[in-house]
Design a protein that fits this description.
The complex is a heterodimer of chains A (about 100) and B (about 160).
Chain A: E1 4-8, E2 11-15, E3 19-20, H1 22-39, E4 43-47, E5 53-54, H2 56-70, E6 76-79, H3 83-91, E7 98-100
Parallel strand pairs in A: 2-4, 3-5, 4-6, 6-7
Antiparallel strand pairs in A: 1-2
Chain B: H1 2-11, E1 14-22, H2 27-39, H3 46-67, E2 77-85, E3 88-95, H4 103-107, H5 123-130, E4 133-139, E5 143-151, H6 155-160
Antiparallel strand pairs in B: 1-2, 2-3, 3-5, 4-5
Classes of the chains: A alpha/beta (about 100), B alpha+beta (about 160).
């Protein structure tokens, strides 16, 4: 399952793949940055609906994108977060920069 | 009484397996899935499987990115070995890469030598959080061995209560 990107107004929606590790994260970051630069989106939404596995590489993806948009006042959101993903987000303190939407 | 002793003995299954693969990122999923499949014989919970997969993924990723510095030549190999002792999984991830100069520093949460690659510096913190025990052995120029342990499956300790 590949990641999917979609722009809605000022938001870049990223539908994440089933597994987010170092191997998959490189491409997600690269494509996301392309959209952020060319489409000038302000905010990024990470959709974890299909995601069953994530390691610290996923944290790197989120933090990296946050750094890119935060200086322009952009925000990062996470949706469809299950308990496993939530645990990883909390453990790395990411809930301070990512708004987890219920 | 005798029955309980027998039950205990039955639980002391010993098993082991070893993997050797090239240090390429597409093998990260292979390594963690193989370890997860191996550990199913201990009747792990879904959460335990997920914990083990994350920890193995972190260690293998470290070996590939940091140990071999992204090189994936023929000599760049990663070894994963698993041992089951009673209801404990012992997993060892080894590389013969550059080694770690300062292990304490490397294990600090958020510390990373590769921020340009979007590394979060949470690898060791995750291994520590998701496993029961973590040991890091490393020598500069020789490589790194990560040893982790986790008690798996709740059925066995419920039986051992009495």
């Amino acid at each position: 399952m590949e990641e999917e990107f979609k722009i809605i107004d000022n938001y870049l929606m990223i539908r994440l793949p089933d597994e987010i590790d170092h191997h998959r994260s490189v491409n997600i970051s690269k494509t996301a940055d392309k959209y952020i630069m060319s489409e000038k989106v302000g905010n990024v939404v990470f959709d974890f609906e299909r995601t069953t596995f994530m390691d610290s590489s996923g944290i790197g993806v989120i933090v990296g994108r946050y750094k890119k948009i935060a200086c322009f006042g952009g925000k990062v959101f996470a949706i469809n977060v299950d308990n496993r993903i939530r645990r990883i987000l909390l453990l790395s303190g990411l809930h301070n920069i990512v708004e987890i939407m219920e | 009484m005798i029955e309980i002793v027998n039950v205990k003995q039955d639980k002391q299954i010993k098993n082991e397996m070893k993997l050797e693969f090239r240090a390429v990122s597409s093998n990260e999923a292979f390594a963690r899935t193989a370890v997860a499949a191996f550990v199913t014989q201990l009747n792990p919970t879904l959460e335990e499987i997920s914990d083990i997969k994350t920890a193995v993924s972190e260690a293998v990723t470290n070996a590939i990115i940091h140990g071999y510095d992204g090189e994936d030549g023929e000599d760049c190999k990663v070894w994963v070995s698993c041992l089951i002792r009673n209801d404990v999984l012992e997993v060892e991830i080894q590389d013969k890469g550059v080694g770690i100069e300062n292990i304490d520093k490397a294990m600090e949460p958020l510390f990373t030598t590769k921020p340009e690659l979007d590394r979060s510096g949470m690898g060791f913190a995750f291994m520590e959080a998701f496993m029961d025990d973590l040991e890091v052995i490393s020598e500069v120029g020789q490589g790194t061995i990560i040893r982790m342990q986790k008690k798996v499956g709740t059925s066995s300790w419920i039986m051992r209560e009495d």
